[in-house]
Design goal:
The chain is of the alpha+beta class and 413 residues long. The chain contains twelve helices and nine strands. It is globular. The protein binds protoporphyrin IX containing FE.
């Protein structure tokens, strides 16, 4: 299966020659000079729009296909903004009700991802810039039971871990809606339209909003950084490869085949105590340099770590307690696809930061792939000094659907 970045766009431009020149100037000679150039250009009469500038495509126009074998938003290159909604079903919503709900949700999600308003859109003007909008649905164990279905066996809350301080307000849920795009207004609008669709079927249990770098801030393909400053996401299966397909797509579980297991962990990161750690301490806690993400035994982000290398006095260069050593398994089945977002919420009184990671991973079988890794990190991982899981939820994302079908049809029809 090809990755989701078969994005398409219709060319429309809002750029002027001044912005075009300024872009080049910033790259070439630095911001201060660029401001000078900008001022000079402002003083000059506005030139006519050049053909080159007129054809600069708008990022807002880019769409990701909704229909297909798998749901979008999993193998799609992560967007800048993500909102996660978990809902609880209302009592009395039965299999027929679930089918109605998923038809409505699918229909509106498909429209909005293609830059069209939802069916009863109160602000259709906000639907015109999809900016790679994807909507991905996941089913909790409660929804599957309500539908009269069974499995997968791994669709259950994770076992309790010693490091957990879970809050019900960020845990569990019957239905997950992951909404992501490169434009925050698009995400907010899509969230509201989809929540309105669920009104007679479910209530909102929790919401989490996350972000990565804004679109265009860094080169496409740059690994994201988390709020500790670390390069986060280096070792990850590559969408569009057989390896990715094997790690992510479920081939075994009846209605869930063609989908994937979703783990969402809200992990608080204590930036205030992290501040007290010096650079070597930071590098050692992960086993990688914060500067460029290279392993402590290498120079480049993608260098293979050498776990056997020793310091002159005989200690492993990549410490045994480092996150890299502890999260890496020798068992090729124990691998996951991570697609996290940062969060940065309002601090409590006396706090400077209330920040962390919305850790999101996709894997075909949560019991076999995710849990052994989390168990090892629970036993030992220096990063635990500064991180605390405060939310945890597990869902089964059903397969995708063809045009005219709906997400969840393999369970609900
Ligand atoms: C706030 C919490 C966390 C932070 C800040 C964090 C940060 C990082 C960083 C900086 C790396 C190294 C670069 C990379 O390959 O991405 C990494 C790798 C990794 N992390 Fe985490 N992580 C967190 C939680 C987790 C959790 C909960 C799991 C799974 C249970 C996990 C699994 C992994 C795996 C599998 C790798 C790749 C290891 C390898 O190279 O084979 N991480 N993480």
């Amino acid at each position: 299966m090809a990755p989701r970045d078969r994005s398409s766009r219709s060319d429309r431009s809002g750029s002027t020659r001044r912005q075009f020149l300024l872009g080049g100037a910033v790259a070439g000679v630095g911001a201060v000079t660029a401001i000078g150039i900008d001022t000079a250009l402002r003083a000059a009469p506005e030139p006519a729009r050049s053909t080159a500038a007129a054809s600069v495509p708008l990022n807002g126009d880019v769409t990701v296909p909704f229909h297909g074998e798998h749901q979008a938003g999993i193998d799609t290159a992560a967007q800048a903004h993500g909102t996660f909604l978990a809902l609880d079903l209302l009592p009395g919503v039965d299999r027929d009700g679930l089918r109605r709900m998923m038809r409505i949700l699918t229909d509106d999600a498909a429209r909005m991802t293609q830059g069209q308003p939802a069916l009863a859109d109160s602000e259709p003007e906000l639907a015109v810039a999809p900016a790679r909008l994807t909507v991905t649905f996941g089913f909790g164990a409660g929804l599957v039971a309500r539908a009269g279905g069974t499995g997968p066996a791994w669709l259950a809350p994770l076992p309790a871990f010693g490091i957990d301080q879970l809050q019900p307000g960020y845990s569990d849920g019957d239905l997950l809606i992951q909404i992501a795009a490169d434009d925050p207004l698009t995400v907010a609008h899509a969230s509201r339209m989809l929540l309105k669709d669920t009104r007679s079927f479910a209530t909102l249990r929790w919401t989490q909003q996350g972000f990565r770098r804004a679109h265009g801030s860094v080169k496409p393909g740059t690994t994201m950084r988390n709020l500790f400053g670390q390069v986060d996401g280096t070792t990850n299966p590559e969408p569009g490869t057989a390896d990715f397909d094997a790690v992510v797509w479920n081939t075994a579980d009846g209605w869930a085949a063609g989908g994937t297991g979703v783990v969402i962990r809200r992990i608080a990161m204590d930036l205030d105590t992290w501040d007290r750690l010096d650079r070597p301490g930071r590098d050692q806690s992960v086993g990688r340099y914060q500067s460029n993400g290279a392993p402590l035994t290498g120079t480049d982000e993608f260098d293979e770590p050498d776990f056997d290398a020793k310091t002159p006095i005989g200690f492993p260069v990549i410490p045994e307690f480092s996150h890299l050593r502890r999260s890496r398994s020798d068992n090729p089945h124990e691998r996951i696809f991570r697609r996290a977002f940062n969060y940065d919420d309002t601090p409590a009184a006396g706090q400077i930061a209330n920040a962390g990671l919305i850790f999101v991973s996709f894997q075909a079988d949560i019991d076999r792939q995710f849990i052994p890794i989390q168990r090892r990190l629970d036993e030992l991982d220096l990063l635990n000094e500064w991180t605390t899981p405060i939310g945890s939820a597990v869902f089964a994302a059903p397969p995708g659907c063809a045009e005219g079908g709906f997400i969840g049809e393999t369970l609900l029809t």
